[in-house]
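Consider this today:
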Amino acid sequence: MRQRVQIEGRQLEVSNLDKVLFPEVGFTKAQVIDYYVRIAPVLLPHVAQRPVTFTRWPSGVDGQAFFEKNSARHAPEWVRSVTVPSPGSSRGRETLDMVLLSAVPDLAWSANLAALEVHVPQWQVDGAGVAQLPDLLVLDLDPGPGTGVVECAEVAHRLRDQLVADGLDPVVKTSGSKGLQVYAPIECADREHPSRYAKALAQELTRQTPEEVVWRMEKALRPGKVLVDWSQNNTAKTTVAPYSLRARPLATVSTPLRWAEVDALRGGADPESVRFRTDDVLTRVAEHGDLFDVADRTRAVLPAV
C-alpha cells in the first residue's frame, strides 16, 4: 500500500509501512522512517556534505542486500546530488551521481527505500560539489574470534593516548555491530596522508603488542586479536555514519560514546552496556546532546608520515 505524506513541506510517497524489516525484534519500515526523522538533528550535520552510499535491504535483514552508490537517479528532484569521480570498485563508469542527505525529508525518502544503513566517506564536497581533502581520520576496531568490545576498548584507549599525544582530539562510537570506531577531525597534506598516518599507527600498536593487535586484514591472523583497520581512510571507501542503523538482528545503532564509557568497559562493565537500539539512542541524545561533536573539537594538522 502506498500513501503520500508531507514532511517539512516536501511531498513524499511511502509504501509498505507495516513491513517488518528486523524480524527478530519486529521492527517495521514505519519505525525505521520514524527513527531517521527523529534522529535527523544530530545525524544530518555528519552526512550533509558527504556523498552517501546506501545499504538497502528491501526484504529486511534476513533477505538479500545491495550497496548503491549511483543513487541520485532514483531521487526526487528536491534531494541534492553531486557528481563525483567513480572509485576503482565501480567498473564501467568514470563518474557517479551520488545523493547528499541534507534535510529531514531526504532521510525519510532514503528510509522508505529500506536504506537501513548510511555510509559516508571521510571527506566532504564544497558548495560547487568538488571533493575536498579528507577532514576526518577513522580507525575501525574489529574484534577477531575470541575477542569482543572489551578488547576493542583497550585498543581504543591506547589509540586515544597516541592521538592526543600527536595533537588530535578524538571521539569514539560503536560500530553498531561488534567493535568500536575512533575518529578525529584533521587537516592533511594530501588525499593519502590519513591512510599513511593510520597505517603507521596500526603497525606501531601491533609491534608493541603483537599478541593483542593486528594491522593486516588476513583472517588467519585475527583470532584472539583486534584488527585496527586503517584502510577506511582510503578516499574511495566509506564508513557507517554516526547514528545510522545497522542491518543486524536487534536493529542496533552506530552510537557515539563518552570516553568514560570506554574506560568503564576496560574496568569490567557489561559489554551489553554499549549495545544501543533506536529508543536508547534518542534518549542518549536528549540527555547528552551530540557526543560525536567533531565540528566543535580541535581540527589538528596530521603529523607528517
Remarks:
- The chain is about 25% helix and 25% strand.
- The chain has two domains: 2-120, 136-301.
- The mean pLDDT is 94.
